[in-house]
Amino acid sequence: xxxxxxxxxxxxxxxxxxxxxxxxxxxxxxxxxxxxxxxxxxxxxxxxxxxxxxxxxxxxxxxxxxxxxxxxxxxxxxxxxxxxxxxxxxxxxxxxxxxxxxxxxxxxxxxxxxxxxxxxxxxxxxxxxxxxxxxxxxxxxxxxxxxxxxxxxxxxxxxxxxxxxxxxxxxxxxxxxxxxxxxxxxxxxxxxxxxxxxxxxxxxxxxxxxxxxxxxxxxxxxxxxxxxxxxxxxxxxxxxxxxxxxxxxxxxxxxxxxxxxxxxxxxx
Length: 268
Ligand code: HEC
Hints:
Bound molecules: heme C
Strand order of the largest sheet: 3-2-1-6-5-4
Oligomer: single chain
Structural class: alpha+beta
Mean pLDDT: 82
Distance between the termini: 40 Å
Low-confidence stretches: 1-26
CATH topology of the largest domain: Beta-Lactamase
Helix content: 40-55%
CATH class of the largest domain: Alpha Beta
Number of helices: 12
Radius of gyration: 20 Å
Number of domains: 2
């Protein structure tokens, strides 16, 4: 029979949160937002261009505190009694409107700097769109399960444009491709973007010693998009490579499901 250990019940809230892998966000004082700011509609469409501009702005201005992937895990956040909220948590992001996120970015509070004077209005909306990217939580999950860098890519002519990249946390990792356009010829991403659903693998195609595993996101409308994992060839071999292929395919399927749902009911 399952018995409750009374010692466990005495654990402080923070320890419980650490055990189950979430943070005690309830401790963060509520951040009230004026009603008209909450209701303000987002005037900037989430096009590939605006998302990749938003991704770049995020890396330059926000990643230092909120973490490269937005999950609040940064060296800076570790010095705080309470790290900023996890901006990759769909449940948390669902509670905030675009207008509310825009307002928080513009006005700031305490340690969160105000960006009203540092970023143009359009740029702040681009960052909001980026934070809303439906694929981000999936990229973070894919990075966590494969421990390699995960990417979201769209096709633009003969190039693959890297919309978003969630970096591996290992010391030897692939990084810095977000916002970049890479010719697709001969690459795993190229094969994924132009072929049938299923993981495509290429070793040493773009850089020697680097292997990419990519899969098309099964959605009908253009532009073609893919999800990929990139890492050192010596780590992406044998059964690990097989595992990564499966994970990349299931991430591509989950992103497609979210996109279908969003097309019917709006994001989140
Ligand atoms: C110097 C560190 C720092 C930088 C840089 C920074 N933030 Fe923050 N951010 C914080 C902290 C700390 C909080 C929590 C503030 C609070 O609740 O009082 C926060 C809160 C937020 C929130 C509100 C989350 C919530 O749950 O209410 C959003 C959204 C946000 N930041 C987005 C951004 C974006 C986008 C950028 C870049 C344009 C950015 N931040 C740059 C530290 C930072």
